[in-house]
Amino acid sequence: MYDLIIAGAGPAGITAAVYAARKKMKTLVVTKNIGGYAASSATVENYIGYQFISGAELAKKFEEHLKSFDVEIKENTEVLCFRKLDNHFKVETDKGEYECLTAIVATGRKPRLLGVPGEVAFKNRGVTYCATCDAPLFARKDVAVIGGGNSAMDATIQLMSIANKIYLININNDLEGDEIMIEKIKKSDKVEILNNTNTKEIMGDKFVNNIKLQVNKSVERMLDVQGVFIEIGSMPVKGPGCDVNTNKKDEIIVNKRCETDVPGLFAAGDVTDVPEKQIIVAAGQGAIASLSAFKYISKNIFDS
Amino acid sequence: MAKIKVYSTPTCPYCRMVKSFLKEKGVDFEDIDVSVDSKAAEEMIKKSGQMGVPQIEINEKIIVGFDREAIESELSNV
Questions:
Q1: Residues of chain A with pLDDT > 90: what percent?
Q2: Does residue B14 belong to the interface with chain A, where contact is any CB pair within 8 Å?
Q3: Band of the pLDDT at A274, cuts 50, 70, 90?
Q4: ipTM of the complex
Q5: Which of A182, A212, A230 is the last residue of a domain?
Q6: Residue A184: its H or E element
Q7: Where are the domains of chain B?
């Protein structure tokens, strides 16, 4: 029986684990990877103590800090559900079961899927969610960027110096985000902005060849592209919080103490309804959740 | 032993993670920057049928993405 099992090892989960280790709680971290979504940020310039650091390097620092303690870590493993029993949890993962007295959901967010035919089949065959990683593979090719916000514009700007032609496919009337980026994109003769346009299907053979669009909810149009960059935001990975209350955006509802509506189950970071999704906020919530778990055990387990 | 190759781009965070992971393990590898070497990029895509980085070639097997377990199990077969 563990005192605490933490699902996720991004900024929130790692901070929670460090705090738990310092309280000598018997802790297990179950996670798909170490670093989380934050690790894929090209640069981080607002985490205090580092004026400029890449997401990957910051994740590495977090990992070093975590591993300086005697905390058990199960990587490449996913918590499917923290199931509440009488006074403890049964923890169902894709690689076996565990038990714990308290649990923290810190699974963060993942890129939102477009949900059209061809998207899954052509992942890594022209469809990508990481422009920072894969943009250079589309040198001199025609590509589509799906989205109309800052992340879509960021991908478009990266591609302007690489690709032959970029179609920016935006479901809304106009681009929304930083003016500097909008200006840059509108000035580029490589970019064609298609507003009020829905992406209906991604098609190809071995790799992506074209996409089917619908303009103004009526006219269909085909575009020949070899790459599709999907940049339509992110969604919470709330899997382990299988029985907890969430808001309309599927985010886990927590109070100031990072408590959910299930006693003994806490949540921290971007998976919660915290108003700002920031690395430093996630880390702060990780600390709160961990200390709350410690207090919960002191109060409920030792007293009974 | 065939040389281990890492196909990467300079901006890709997971590529950096793979490379620092291999370095920590004391594994020798050839780092191929597919953002400048378009011939190598084509070779990589042809071999794996996948257009994404990082890709790690060990024993002529290709692992796509930073998958520690897959890399470790393939390294143990070297």
A1: 80
A2: yes
A3: very high
A4: 0.82
A5: A230
A6: helix A179-187
A7: 4-75
DSSP one-letter code for A233: -
The answer on A144 and A57 residing in a single domain is no
Do both A102 and A196 map to the same domain?
A: no
Whole-prediction pTM? 0.81
For residue B36, give the amino acid letter.
Answer: V
Match domain B4-75 to its CATH number in 3.40.30.10, 3.40.50.300, 3.40.50.80, 3.30.413.10: 3.40.30.10
Other C-beta atoms within 10 Å of A291: how many?
17
Minimum Cα–Cα distance from A58: chain B residue: B13
Query: A45: helix, coil or strand?
Result: coil
What is the C-alpha separation between A55 and A110, in angstroms, rounded?
Answer: 15
Beta bridge partner(s), residue A145:
A168, A229
Is the pLDDT assigned to residue A183 strictly greater than 90?
yes
Percent of chain B with pLDDT over 90: 54
pLDDT at A304 over 60: no
Count of H-run helices and E-run strands, chain B: 3, 4
Q: Which of B64, B55, B67, B48 is nearest to B30 (CA)?
A: B55
The closest alpha carbon to A238, from A266, A271, A261, belongs to A271
Provide the CATH number for the domain around residue A247.
3.50.50.60
User: How far is residue A56's CA from residue A33's CA, in Å, rounded to a whole number?
Assistant: 12
B9 interfaces chain A, CB cutoff of 8 Å: yes
Q: Reduce the DSSP state of residue A183 to 3 states and report it.
A: helix
* A55/B13 touch (CB, cutoff 8 Å), yes or no: yes
Average pLDDT for A115-139: 93
User: How far off is chain A from B50, nearest CA to CA, in Å?
Assistant: 5
What would the pLDDT profile of B42-74 be if each residue is shown by its tens digit? 999 999 999 999 999 998 899 998 888 889 989
For residue A179, the enclosing domain spans: 127-230
Same domain, A31 and A106: yes
Nearest to A131 by CA among A144, A116, A114: A144
Identity of residue A81:
C
Residues of A in contact with B45 (CB under 8 A): 137
Percent of chain A with pLDDT over 70: 99
Q: Could you say which of A3, A100, A134, A154 is catalytic? A: A134
Greater model confidence, A8 or A218: A8
